[in-house]
Amino acid sequence: MKNLLLILCLAMLTAMGSSVQAQTVSGKVTDQSDGMPLPGVSVLIKGTSTGTATDVDGNFNLNVPGEQTVLVFSFLGFETVEETVGNRSTINIALAEDAAELSEVVVTALGIERDVRALQYSITEVGGEEFTQARENNIANQLAGRVAGVNVSNVASGPAGSSRVIIRGNTSLQGGNQPLYVIDGIPMDNTNFGQAGVWGGADQGDGMTSVNPDDIETMSVLKGASAAALYGSRAANGVILITTKRGTSRRGIGVEINSNVVFERINNQTDLQTEFGSGRYQGDLITGSAVRPTTVRQGYDWGTQAWGERLGSGTAMHFDGVERPYVYAGDNWNRFYETGTAFTNSISLAGGSDTQTFRFNVTDMRSSSVVPNAGFDRLNMSIATSGKFGKKLTFDAKVLYSNERTQNRPRLSDSPGNAFQSIFALPPNVNVEWGKGDPNRLGTIPIGTDPALLSTWGFAEQEEYLMTNNPWGQNPYFSTHQLSINDTRDRIITSGSLRYDITDHLYLSGRAGMDWFTRRGTTLTPQGTGYQRNGSMSESERRVNEINLEAMLGYNREFGDFGVNAFVGANRMRREDENISANGQGFNVPFFHAINNSVIRNFGYGYSGWGINSVFGSAEVSYKNFLFLTATGRTDWFSVLDPQFNDITYPSVGGSFVFSDAMNELPSWLSFGKVRGSWARVGNSTVGPYQIQNVYSLRPAPAVDHGGNQVAMASFATAGGRSGTIPNRFLKPLLSTEIEAGFDVRFFQNRLGLDFTYYRQRSTDDQLNAQISLSSGFGSTLVNLGEMENRGIEILLTGTPIRTSDFNWDVSFNIARNRNEVISLIEGSDILNVEEPRTRTVFVQHRTGFPFGVLAGWVQKRSPDGQPVFEENGAPVQSDQMEVIGNGIPDWTGGINNSITFKGFNLSALVDFRIGGDLYSGTNVRLTQWGLHKQTLQGRAGEEPLTVSGVIQSGTATDGSPIYESFSKTLSPGEANNYWNQMGNRVQDFFIYDGSFAKLRQVTLGYNFPRSILDKTPFTNLNLSFVGRNLSILWKNVENIDPESGYSSGNGQGLDYFGMPQTRTFGFNVRATF
Length: 1074
Hints:
This protein has 1074 residues and is mainly β. The protein contains eleven helices and 58 strands. Residues 1-22 form the signal peptide. This is TonB-linked outer membrane protein, SusC/RagA family.
C-alpha cells in the first residue's frame, strides 16, 4: 500500500510543470455595497489557470509574470472585474453585485446543476466544511438540526453505529423509510446490516460510516417527490446527493493537511437512589421487612435487587464470599467506562492545468470507544481526475475506497451480553470492579477459587464470573472482554462520465458507476458463558455489487425571451447480493474458539440478483429568466415484477415565479422574492427478488449422534422449506404522490431571508402480509394494501444581524411540523404490530386513524367517573384492554445555527431540538422494579409515605358491572415494594415520557492565521480550532436516560431498553494548506 501511494504521488508530481517566479502583487477585495471583505474570491491571471483565492479577510497575494498581466476577479453573485497590473504592487478591488448572477447553483437529481431560482421544489445544500470541523463517524448524524423537515436519530450503539434519517415523515408501513443516497451520480447501498430487537441483538451499522468527510464537497437534500422524481421507484423517501471534491486548475500542487484529535466521555444522565442497598423484602406485606444479604447464597441470589436495608452501618455478604461494609460504593459508571479517543489524519494533493485536474486523498481514522475493549478504525482513499480533449469532449472519473474495522460492537436491548444493563442493575453498595475476576481474562473465575464458592455458583474456573445467580444478567467485564462482535468491511464506489458537446446547444453524455462492498463478521459467545456454557460462534460474509449505466441527450437554448433546457436518457441497473455463513455450537477442544473446532456446524448460502431498466426525461421552459415551468417523467421496468405488467411511470410537473425580477421597481427593503409549486408521483422498491415466485430455501443440515457427538450430515445445507407465504404475481411497488407549494423571500440586501414550504403526501399500494385460509396450503400472502398520509410545513429563517468590517454574525433557524395519519390497513384489520420492547407490555403499532407507529399498552383501570382502581393492598389494577398511550414521532423538529467571525476568529454553535413525541422507557421500568429508581424511595421505612387514592371494587351488580367504593391508603413498606413492582408490570403509561429535548449539538471555535504571519511560512492557510459534539442536553423531560436512547434504526421508534449511554466529544482540529 505504501509503495502504491508513493508511485501515485510521484506520478502526480511529475505531471505538473514548474513556473518562473516574477513580481508579486497583493491586495484586498471588498463588497462595494458595504465595504466588507470578500473571502474566496477567485483571482486568476487572464488566459491561464494560474491564480489564487482571497483569504478570510479578503486579502490575496500572487506572483505575476509582468506588468502587462491582466488579473480577473470573480465571485458568485458579483460582477467580474479585469484589472491590468502595470507597475503596481498593491491592487484593491471593490466588487459590485450582479443581479444576473445572484442566483445560487445547486446539485439536483442525476447530478445536474441548476439555478435555485428555477426550482419548483425545496432543496437544502450543506457545505463540505460542516462535516470536517467536528466530525461524526456516520456523516448522516451531521444533518441533525441543520435541515428543515429532516429528522435524524442516531442509535445508541457506539462509534460505528447506524443512523435513521427521515425526510417529511414515514411513507411505508413496513418497508424502509430512509432516503436514497447518491454519491457522484451513483446510488449507494445504505442497508443496515443488523439491529437489536425485543430479544436483543446489536446495531451492525450502515453504509454511511464508509463515507469520508474529507471527500465531501456538498451534500444536497432533495426533500420532496418533485425534487426526487427522476429517481423513480427509489425516490419515495427523498434523496441525499453527495458530491465529492475534485482538483482545480492551479500552478503547482496544492497540499491540504487536516489533523483532528477528540476525546469522548459518557454523558451520564442517571440520578438513582443511593440510600438503600442490596437485599430484598421478606415476610408478608404488612409485617415483613427489608433485609440485607448475610450469606454467600443470599449475596449471589440478590445481586440485582436494591430492596435491602438503609445503607450506612454494618456489613453485607456479597456474591464472591467477601463481607464488606454496607455503604454506598460510589459511581460505577466512571469506574467502568473509559475515555474514548479518535485520531484522524488526512492529506490531500490537488492541482491541474487548463485541460486536466486531479485530486488524491488519504484519511486514516483510529478510535477507541468509551466501552472497554471496543473501537472503530477506518482508512479512506480517493482519487479524482477530470479534463477535456479539445473543445467538445470532457471527462470526469472518481474512485472512493474505504476499509472499516469494528471491534466488539455492543449488545443492546435484552441481549444477555448487554453490559449497560449489567451496570445499571448493580445495587448502590456494589462496586463493579469486584467482578473483574481473573486479571488475564477479565470477567472470568480466577484459577484457585475456593471450591465451596464454585459449588455455590455452579460454575468452574475460567468460566464466567457471574455477580448474580441469573445467568442472563452478565458480568459487564465478561461482556466486553470475552464476548465479541467484530466485523470488517471493504467498499469501492466508482463513477466515470463523458460529455460530448455536439453543438453549442446539444450535448451527449454518459455515466458508469459501481457500488461494491464485502463485509465479514464474526460473533463469539465463548465456552463458559453463563447463559450458554457450551459456547457458540458464527462467521459470515456478504458481497454486494450494484452497477449503473446511464446515457443522456440534452438541449439548452434561448429563443428571445424564452429559454429551453431539456434532456432525455436511459439507465440500466443491475444488483447482486451474495451471503455465506457458518455457525458452530460447542467446542471439542476446550476454549479453542473456531468453527472447525465446533461440535455442531451448519453452513448457509444465499444469492439474489435483480435489475431495473429505465428511461427518463425533463423539459424546462423559462420566460425572461423569472418564470419557469418544468415537467419530468421516468418509467422503470422491474425484473422482480411479472413481465406482463412490470413497468411503472413516475411523472412530475411544477413551476416557479421570481416575482422580484418581474417587477419594474422593487421596494428598497425587498431583495428577492419567489413562489413555487409542484406535483409528483414517485415509488418505493418494496418488492424484493423472487417474492412473486414460489421458491425453495436452504435448510440447515440435520445433525446426528455419532459417538456421543452431534455431527452435521453434510457440510452444506439441504434444499427444502417452502415458504408459508403464497406468491402474488400482481405485487407492485408502493406509490407516493405529493403536492408542494412554497415561497422564498429576502430582505434588506439579503440580510434577512424566509423560506416556507407546505406539502401533502399520500402513499398507496403498500406491501402488507394478509392472512389466508390454511386450506390453501399457505398461511398468508403479500398484497398491495395500506394507505398513509403526511402533511406538514417547513420554515427556514436566515439573517445577518451584524455585519461590519471586522465582525460578522450569521444565524439560521429552521423548524418543521409533520402530521401523519394511517388511512387504511389490511381489510378487516385496524391494527398492525411493528415492534415491542423486552418488557412485552407495550407495542409499537399502526392503527387506522392514528399516526404512524403509535405506542399501545395497558394502563391503570378506571371507574366510569375516571377514578383509578386499586387492589386492597394498594396495587394498581390493570385495564381490560390496551390503549394508545403515545407516539414516538416528534411533533416539531428544528435547529438554530449561529456563526460569528471576528477578524481571524470564528465561532459556530448548533442547537438541535425536538418538541413532542413520546418515549416508553423500559430502562426506567426495570430500575423501578429493581429498587434503584429514586421514586422507589417513597414508601420505604423512614422515607416519605406512599399514599394511593381512588376506588376499589367492592362487588358486582346484577347486570355484571363492577361496584366501586372510595379508597385511600398509606402503604406499608411491603405494600410499597409490591406497588412499584406492579406499576412496571401493569401500568405502562406511567413510564411514558415526553421525548422533547434541546441539545447543544456542536460548537467550534477557530482561528485563521493572518497573511502577515503566513507569508513567513510555507502555508497559504492555517486554521486551529476547538471542536465539540453533543456537549450538553439543554432541556429534556425523561429521567436517567438520554431521550435519544433508542436501540434500533427501524420503524419501531419510541422505545428505550438499556441502550448505550450517549457521549460527548471535544478536541482540536488543525487544517493547513500550502
